Amino acid sequence: MKLIKTAVACVNQTPFAWDENFAHLRMAIDHARAEGATVLCLPELAITGYGCEDAFFIDGLQDTAFSQLDALAAHTAGMVVIVGLPIFHEKALYNCAAVLADGAIVGFSAKQFLPGDGVHYEPRWFKPWPPGEIDVLERTSDDGTTRKFPIGDLVFELGDVRFGCEICEDAWVANRPGIELSLRGVDIMCNPSASHFAFEKFAVRQRFVIEGSRAFATAYLYANLMGNEAGRIIYDGGAMIASGGALLARGRRFSYADVELVTAVIDVDGNRREAARRVGFRPRHDAERLMVSHPFVWPKRRPEVSPPIPRSWEDRASIEQEEFARAVALGLWDYLRKSRAHGYVISMSGGADSAACAVLVGTAIQLAFAELGAGGVRQHLPWIARLQDVTEVKAAVAALLSCAYQPTENSGMVTRLAAEAVAKAVGADFHVIDVDPQYKAYIASLEKALGRTLAWQTDDLALQNIQARVRSPSIWMLANLRNSVLITTSNRSEAAVGYATMDGDTSGGLAPLGGIDKSFLRSWLRWMETKGLLDLEPIPALGAINSQQPTAELRPASTTGGAGQTDEADLMPYDFLEAVEDSAIRDKRTPVEVLQELMPRYPQWKVTELATWIERFFQRWCQNQWKRERIAPSFHLDDRNVDPRSWCRFPILSGGFDKELAEMRAFVAMGRAGRA
User: Burial of 26 by CB count in 10 Å (0-12 exposed, 13-18 middle, 19+ buried)?
Assistant: First the structure.
């Protein structure tokens, strides 16, 4: 019986942060060796970081990456290590997994399938490697000597154990390389990945890892990046080791550690017996050409049995709420430390969005304290002087988060008290900054310049927007005084229809809610009020937020019949807005197709009312692309994102769906909807 102890490490990297990235990879090797592992799989492009973008073409980056690889190889005595980096070969750049063994670089497996959709732009930088092809990579050392390495679609025979690689996207396609590799006798399949977080995505990953190990009758090692690597994309980690159709080990997701390691013992001979029954072997005339043999002595000791996978928050029914909180919290934590900012500042309106931002920042700090301890938090943020004597989590939140309520004459006491209650509940530093004098001064200045009085009946939008904009200078000043990142609280629903004031409530350097819809956000806040994350307390103060209808609170009640301004009265019901957005933008349906799809789902409203809201959505979507281009960076959370810089592109100027909207009006007018 041939038993091998394997390890997978997820690491938190940063684009071309050479010393830090190398330290994490070296730490992973040291930890794996200390655990008695002989094989270690590390993530895709882990040496450089995945998000280098056009900097991948810099000659110095590629040279430095190879130098780092040489240095890593020197630390692999008695081990096999797989790690990702870019390789320039024959006028093309390839996304590769390097195989290191016992101090040497054995060769390179090159990625065959490159994702070019959504947040991924790999074909912009890399070329896909053709299946069944290999070549020789030459590297000239500083002393003038030339070294040669095999590169391509290879099987690596190390001693008497065969290795193959699927690199991230390779495993997501129907014709995945693992099929051919299994027929070439691979024992251990390694998958170095950079797979971003999205709702429900981890379950898909877990399925293809387990199913790959079963179908290929191999051990399958899956390594992923971890954390907010480069600004927008959050990697959730989640290392996995499966063998023969069984998941042996699963690492934590959304960890705040620099390195997250899991180990498991695999039975090579057991998998080979299963392969003999179900997979078989396909002889090739070029088998020798596609095989790299390298001497390696496997340890004789019998490794201990893998412990069972522990239960965690992932076993709760409220998985989506947990994932959202943990993904955005980790994104905020890494954005803070990698930008070397001194904290966050939020303009609190007393509404759902700003409250959610405050709760998420507070959650990030709580989770960091829980995992790293006070000393670890200070170690990760050594430049923040006001944090250095802090030992309690609430004091840390106050040191890192400052909130301000900025009222005008149209602001109410309900929102003021709600903003203060939530800020105090999370432990934030809280201020009230009265901006009503500035608001009235702007109106007076414009009235004097124009020679007329401004009135709500004639100047509604301008009078609303100036209130939002007048808050921007003071909150920016507070952020500057604290050397902090100003958070803009805009959510995805507002971005879709432009229900936000540019240079007003959109002011800021980071939009953590830019990838989530208002309906989910409101339900999440209710969940946080009564249940909350596993091991953290719920926040009852959110009841003051959840009891209100969302409102911009920019228009006096006298202009709305005394009922007060609400977002849904200005737009449409939020759940219907999300349904239209999904159908129109994600699913690419025309206005009449959207109406036909949604009529059966919303029988409580007249067809004419639904058509009015659908038309309003399409018109506002087209008119406000320029706003979506300007909103601060946001985190990618799912395939409903509308960020044009990382997911959903649309022209700034367009025909506005005029023809398509006319078709919908005609459809309604002719009574084809079948409902008045």
Answer: middle
- The two tokens of residue 533 are 């994350």
Least confident among 63-72, 220-229, 362-371, 542-551: 542-551
Mean pLDDT for the stretch of residues 25-40 = 97
Is 605 in contact with 638 (CB distance < 8 Å)? no
Report which of 675, 524, 548 is spatially closest to residue 602, judged by C-alpha positions: 675
Q: What is the mean pLDDT of the chain?
A: 94
Q: d(Cα 385, Cα 390) in Å, to the nearest integer?
A: 10
Asked if residues 511 and 488 have their Cβ atoms less than 8 Å apart, the reply is: yes
Phi, psi of 563 (to 5 degrees): -85, -15
Contact 625, 497 (CB under 8 A): no
Measured at the CA of 423, the angle between CA 420 and CA 427, to 5 degrees, comes to 135
Residue (of 298, 254, 398, 286) closest to 2 by Cα position: 298
Print the SS3 string covering 363-419. Answer: HHHHHHHHHHHHHHHHHHCCCCHHHCCCCCHHHHHHHHEEEEECCCCCCCHHHHHHH
> Please, is 502 exposed, middle or buried when counting C-beta atoms within 10 Å of its C-beta (0-12, 13-18, 19+)?
middle
- The pLDDT tens digits for 410-451 are 898 999 999 999 999 999 999 999 999 999 999 999 999 999
B/e letters for 509-546, b = 16+ CB within 10 Å, e = fewer, are bbbbbbbbbbbbbbebbebbbeebbeeeeebebbbbbb
Average pLDDT over residues 584-606: 96
List the one residue out of 105, 218, 103 whose CA is nearest residue 151: 105
Q: Could you give the dihedral angle defined by the CA atoms of residues 43, 44, 49 and 55, in that order, rounded to the nearest 10 degrees?
A: 170
Contact status, residue 125 vs residue 54, Cβ threshold 8 Å:
yes
**CA 635 centroid distance within chain:** 5
> Which residue(s) pair with 236 in the sheet?
226
| Residue 15, both tokens | 């684009």
pLDDT tens, residue by residue, 535-559: 899 999 999 999 988 887 787 876 6
pTM: 0.94
Q: Tell me the C-alpha distance between 330 and 364, whole Å.
A: 6
Task: Please tell me the predicted confidence (pLDDT) of residue 142.
Answer: 75
CA distance to 320, 321, 337, 513, 575, per residue, from 520 (Å) = 10, 9, 28, 11, 9
Q: How far apart are CA 254 and CA 326, in angstroms?
A: 6
pLDDT of 553 reads: 75
Using DSSP, state whether 581 is helix, strand or coil: helix
Question: What pLDDT shows up at residue 673?
Answer: 58
Domains and CATH numbers, the chain: 3-310 (3.60.110.10), 315-435+471-483+517-551 (3.40.50.620), 570-676 (1.10.10)
- 322-370 per-position pLDDT tens digit: 999 999 999 999 999 999 999 999 999 999 999 999 999 999 999 999 9
Q: How many CB atoms lie within 10 A of CB 67?
A: 14
Q: Over pLDDT 70: what percentage of the chain?
A: 97
The pLDDT of residue 434: 96
